[in-house]
Amino acid sequence: MGDSISAYQDCQPDATVQYHSHSGALGAAELDEYLSQCSIRVGVHTGKLIANDYFYEKPDVQLRKPKEADKHSELEIYEQSSGFSEPDHGQALAKNRLEYHQLTSRILVGDGNYTSLAPGHKFEIQQHPNASVNQLHTVLELQQKGTQTQVLVHGESNDEGTNFETNFVAVLSEQTIRPAPKPKPVALPQTATVVGPDGESYYIDKMGRVKVRFHWDRQCEENECSCWIRVSESYAGSDHGSQFPPLINDSVIVSFIHGDPDRPIITGRVYDGNQTPPIKPDQMVRNVIQTPYGHQVLIDDKNACISLTTAGGDQLLMTDGWKEDGNMVRLTSSDGHAFSAGEGDNLKGITLVTKAGHTVSMIDDPSPKISVVDKGEQLKIDLDCDGKSITIDNADSGSVNIQCSNGKIVISGKTVEINGQSGIDMTSNSHISMSAGTIQIKGDQKVEIEGGMELKAKAGTNFKAESGATMSIEGGATTKVQGGALTEVKGALVKIN
């Protein structure tokens, strides 16, 4: 047998046989071998076959390959997942499969006592009344039967006790004999262990594939047990998707595409006695994604929250429906800095807290305000949005400084009030100016106005200095009272010394 007609040899010892129309059992005395029955059977078979497949390492390569016969091309067979990864292989496969389907479109069926027939060998029929039978054929199927009714004694013969019959199916010798496609055994899902080099946690290639050791494998090298196996992910695409490659020693479920043992794919991961879940039985209603390095995404339905935590301790917490904090988002660094935003009984706004305890709050309700408070609550700045006021409070013994080195400080309002419990000091290296429609300076006990070199008081029209009891005008050396037109000194008693 071979995969080309050139491999088919002639029947031996005689490749030619005569056809005789009579039939019946043949005795050993009959020296001539012949065929007593011959008939041609013709059927309508497919005239076109398309073999197709998909190779994930070269997804853009078109593997679909058609092959057509001389007739009946409208009767098409389409075979998907034919088991090839190269276009040339697919073309040859389509040709072979079509030749198999075409093989029995014309067959020759016969019987006789011809003993030279052998499967895969050629013979020629002669003297058949149908000229199309008198051609060279290749044996496709063969059944032979011989009988001997009794044991012969040496030197004796029994022509009536020995018979030979043959039944055959043959095709034209120019047809290539192709065997029926043999289906691969169907592989069912099974578990395996991810393997890799000693001392490594990950062992994956550029396509995210891993190698495994099946539990039945007795000859496995620890890191070379299988081909590279693709891993099913929840989301995958060009430069996007999710990827959680199995680690060495993880237990996985291996399935097989179309049940083909040569096309494994990891479709799941499972825990076992050594690889236990991070969520314990007493922590149910919690879902977690946790890496071996400690990064964690926790979805907690019991406490209505989602948290993202790094191995170093940084955390993003999102809560939903807690009465105290309501719907809240809290970002906390590993060293204690925190940002909170929420809507609940305790918090209706945004709060920033440093590691040392300093706080900035922006509150919406019940009283909208913005506050900056130091860790000891001694220094406070409050912006009361409803009361439209700004309060700067230093409860300690320190001071509150407002400084502008080169510009100007403006304090403006309908009414400006400056109040000092012990005193108010106003100092300028140059001058101090006060200007208003009316300026009133009042001291409950005493008012002192002093000029280091000169004190000058001037009124555009009238100048009046008045005392309830005594008024003294005194000059250390000279006192001068002068009027440009008239000077009047008047009293019940005037004393000039």
Structural descriptors:
6-stranded mixed barrel, OB fold (Dihydrolipoamide Acetyltransferase, E2P), mainly beta, single chain, 497 residues
Q: In terms of per-residue confidence, which ranges show pLDDT below 50 for 5 or more consecutive residues? A: 23-29
The secondary-structure class comes to mainly beta
Outline, from the CA principal axes?
Answer: rod-shaped
Average pLDDT confidence is: 83
Strand order of the largest sheet: 17-18-19-20-21-22-23-24-25-26-27
- Continuous helix count: 1
User: Helices and strands, in N-to-C order?
Assistant: EEEEEHEEEEEEEEEEEEEEEEEEEEEE
Distance between the termini: 161 Å
The percentage helix is under 10%
Query: How much beta, percentage-wise?
Result: 25-35%
Count the E strands.
27
Q: Largest sheet, described in full?
A: 11 strands, antiparallel
Task: Please state the CA-atom Rg, rounded to the nearest Å.
Answer: 55 Å
Describe this structure in words.
The chain has about 500 residues and is mainly beta. Among the domains are: about 5-150 and about 160-170, no CATH class; about 190-270, OB fold (Dihydrolipoamide Acetyltransferase, E2P) (Beta Barrel), CATH 2.40.50. About 5% of the residues lie in helices and about 30% in strands. It contains one helix and 27 strands. It has an eleven-stranded antiparallel β-sheet, with no helix packed on it. The chain has a six-stranded mixed beta barrel with strand order 1-2-6-9-8-7. The protein has a five-stranded mixed β-sheet with strand order 11-10-15-16-12, with no helix packed on it. The longest helix is centred in the first third of the chain and has 17 residues, at about 85-105. The radius of gyration is 55 Å and the shape is rod-shaped. Residues about 25-30 have low confidence and may be disordered. It comes from Candidatus Magnetoglobus multicellularis str. Araruama. InterPro entries: Gp5/Vgr_OB, T6SS_RhsGE_Vgr_subset, T6SS_Vgr_RhsGE, Vgr_OB-fold_dom_sf. Pfam families: Phage_base_V, Phage_GPD.
